[in-house]
Amino acid sequence: MANADWGGHSGSRLGLDIGGTLAKLVFFESEVCPSWCTGRFAEVIKGLGKSKSENPASADYGFSRQGSFWGEQENELCFYDEELQGYFHFLCFRSEQMERFVSLIAAQELHHDIDEIFTTGGGAYKYAALFSEHLGITLKPVDELGVVVKGISWLLKRPISDEVCWLGEEENRTNKTFESECHFIDSSTNHLFPFILVNIGSGVSIVRVDGTDKFERVSGSALGGGTFWGLCNLLCPDCKDFSEASCKAVDGDSSSLNLTVEDIYGGDYELEGGRKLPGSLVASFFAKAGRGGNLHDDAALLHALITMVSQNICQIAFLNSRIQGVTKIVFTGNFLRQNQVARQVIATNMRRVTATSQQGKQLQALFLQHEGYFGALGSFLHNVEGDMKRVPTCQRLPTFLGKLSGRSPKMAERSAFQPIEFIFQRFQRCIRCFGNKKAHQTRKSTDTSAEKFTSVPFPKESGHQPIAREHAV
Amino acid sequence: MANADWGGHSGSRLGLDIGGTLAKLVFFESEVCPSWCTGRFAEVIKGLGKSKSENPASADYGFSRQGSFWGEQENELCFYDEELQGYFHFLCFRSEQMERFVSLIAAQELHHDIDEIFTTGGGAYKYAALFSEHLGITLKPVDELGVVVKGISWLLKRPISDEVCWLGEEENRTNKTFESECHFIDSSTNHLFPFILVNIGSGVSIVRVDGTDKFERVSGSALGGGTFWGLCNLLCPDCKDFSEASCKAVDGDSSSLNLTVEDIYGGDYELEGGRKLPGSLVASFFAKAGRGGNLHDDAALLHALITMVSQNICQIAFLNSRIQGVTKIVFTGNFLRQNQVARQVIATNMRRVTATSQQGKQLQALFLQHEGYFGALGSFLHNVEGDMKRVPTCQRLPTFLGKLSGRSPKMAERSAFQPIEFIFQRFQRCIRCFGNKKAHQTRKSTDTSAEKFTSVPFPKESGHQPIAREHAV
């Protein structure tokens, strides 16, 4: 394993999450002693985000932006880790393209140093034979929800700013960018636990998270991102790309499709006890399409579809948060990626139900910038941990282990067996780059309060009576 | 008011519920001293269910089965009331056809004896001017949820069998009729209160019902019957009729559209703690349609649409029942009418979540045979009550009032001012007819236990901690 600089093989630099619709990949590109293989890996993976003309190798295998679900490389999520001296790259493509991906790896001979990869998502089972037969790589499945929680917990403990945000009021949808409505909070000094995690992939998982190792799936929904994309394909067949679809939706007007309370009652609907359903509230999604004359533009259809899926998820999350007695609700998953309408619908509806709540409990919808990649990030951490344990000490180079504490490699080796959340605890700063390696900017200095996350006693919300958790639907 | 035989005007024989998509009408046809007007009314209304060739009058106004949402007259719901000596007829048509309906009433001169009608649904506001200008009739709005609860409470207290049922296991969907899977319960000897009412019209209202006059809307959803019909129109434009759509869906196979747990994981998905998500469970509705090759037949699309809407409603109902600590969930609304797939999906999913519940609480999904007409029935009861109070005593004929107690008309008059639930308490038997007037069969003799409904103290479920109710989404 010539020039291995992080554990024993380049598989430990990868994190894979192969979902029902999308495969998500995290890759760490080290600038320190790169092996031939990891350098080649980085070169190919970074190239996947480029156009065909820029990257003929990927074009041969059909990894074009138009041909994929979400696009490929997420340059705006890439960040440079000054202490690890390397870049974290984020990439996704449609899971059904896995054969092409495997062919690309084989053709570029990137697999020779990899014998196993911890992988999450159903694809860890589904594509196990494909990886084994064509690449000689064993996909080792890891629990999907566990790695998402692991990935979130790890990233939130890093001193990264601009990761967790809530959305402000929507004043003028068409003239405001998402960025201007986003209020980032310093998660390193806020105790997020306990929270309800709503992970929106093809389907939706709802998880109560009390700590990195203390979580439980309490509910879910089959009406998720896959539903949106499936119905989008049926209703707007010209729309080939999720990114295109979510951008088009921003300018859509779904009032020709959705039946509002005002359409039925001529205004607000007064409930018993003086409460009101506002006239602008959607009473029935798509109900106006049942009246014939179905000449709706794609933007209206897409806006209505995203609104339906997002508002429904918001409601199920809200009901579960009440059952669990938890007020912080964290929404993640690739459905939210570049999906301004979805985020805004969730934020607006959460505010509305909080405002009309008789109990007056403040529920907070929170969003994470790396929303779709926590499964892959958690798998990456598994690979690093697994690699630490598996590779003989003699093969571990001091370039990585030495960073852990400044102690001797032998001392450092022991600490490598601690849970991953402690491994990076002493790294001082993390610098993001937005697609530009040279634009290093120090965002935040060391904040030792990050350690608080592990010492929070996971208090229950006072005044709530949590009902015993069950798997819902 | 020549020959008036029930109160002062034929409006008191009507119940109207004008929803966002459908208008529902209940009409009582008395066999005792029918006035010219009520006889004509019955003749026209009964004729609406016939084909154009049988009923040229209705054909002129476009009330054809194909042109309507649900068909028109529901012969199988019609029942004969032996004590009232008359028939209850049930009819529905699309709300947007209201102008045609009003024109029909005007052309047939059926409105001369009617000055006001208690009406529920948004149409009571929306079409008020139409009724006033063309017919001189005032539509008096009554609270929508209140009349539904009123209608249910009234019908359940009548000694009618075969009204409330639960569905058994689905053994062989294609070879079994709905009727054979339906297990009727004798609601007159069972205490239904408290229950969660899930009323599925265009949208969905979720109401906690503790008694006839004790109820509260606790939640709702905009993903309801209107959503199904709207998406049906967009995806299956050749499908012109709800009845046709729901029948087609029975033979549909949505496995080419819905992504199951097995599709992702190759089998069951094991959760922490040993619980499992079964492989057959849908993980993402319509997700397979996102993979291109969208040549799906109407039956598959309709099955997938109904499954999506029904399963989602079931989940929201389940979550609300947990929050409220109530185990009986009654599903009503015209979306369920002739909709075998919807009922079965709800019943199956409710069984599943009950089986996987860690608390082991038995949740029961119940269905009512007159599911879509309780709003109209409640409005009818309002009209009867209102008429009793409004019409001078001298104009009330003994033919109806005398039935109340066998007492003198003056004595009977006093009892007419009692709440409607007491008015019919002493009627002995009620006989249903299924589209055949002659087929009178005594289903049940008097059961005085029906009175228990009003004396039930609405006990809370033990072991639950009901959270204060809020309006949800």
TrEMBL record, chains A, B:
Keyword DNA damage: no
Compositionally biased intervals (Basic and acidic residues): 461-473
Region (Disordered): 441-473
Any one Gene Ontology cellular component term annotated for this protein: cytosol
GO process terms (BP): coenzyme A biosynthetic process
Domain of life from the UniProt record: Eukaryota
One MF annotation (Gene Ontology) recorded for this entry: ATP binding
Signal sequence extent: none
Keywords: ATP-binding, Coenzyme A biosynthesis, Nucleotide-binding
NCBIfam families in UniProt: panK_eukar
Protein name: PANK1 protein
Top-level taxonomy: Eukaryota, Sar, Alveolata, Dinophyceae, Suessiales
